[in-house]
């Protein structure tokens, strides 16, 4: 795995980073999303303190992450039904052995 040195700008500050080469696009997109969210909070709440805005961004992103973690991985009901049928079949097979 090769590393790459980049600089990202968040809240008008430049942060030098060394990252895995394959993570560059994700890191740059993440920095871009943070800056967009900062602008949204500054406009919506007239907040000028960057510390407050960054804290609000961090809270919102973590809440979204935690919500996603609670969602089932499979949302297609037919797939869930098939998996339940398969689980029942295997359980019955093992019980009969």
Structure explained in plain terms:
The protein has 97 residues and is an alpha+beta fold. It has one domain. Helix content is 65%, strand content 16%. The protein contains 3 helices and 2 strands; from the N terminus they run E-E-H-H-H. A two-stranded antiparallel sheet has the order 1-2. Helix 1 (24-45) crosses helix 2 (50-70). It is elongated.
Ordered list of secondary-structure elements with their pairings:
Elements: E1 3-10, E2 13-20, H1 24-45, H2 50-70, H3 77-96
Helix pairs in contact: 1-2
Order of helices and strands: EEHHH
Helical content (DSSP H or I, runs of 4+):
55-70%
Strand order of the largest sheet: 1-2
Radius of gyration: 22 Å
**Separation, N- and C-terminal Cα atoms:** 48 Å
Task: Please summarize what this structure is.
With 97 residues, the chain is an alpha+beta fold. It has three helices and two strands.
């Amino acid at each position: 795995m090769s590393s790459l040195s980049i600089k990202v700008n968040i809240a008008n500050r430049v942060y030098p980073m060394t990252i895995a080469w394959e993570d560059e696009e994700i890191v740059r997109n993440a920095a871009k999303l943070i800056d967009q969210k900062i602008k949204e909070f500054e406009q919506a709440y007239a907040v000028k303190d960057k510390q407050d805005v960054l804290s609000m961004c961090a809270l919102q992103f973590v809440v979204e992450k935690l919500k996603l973690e609670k969602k089932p991985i499979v949302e297609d009901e037919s797939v869930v039904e098939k998996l339940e049928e398969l689980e029942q079949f295997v359980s019955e097979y093992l019980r009969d052995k």
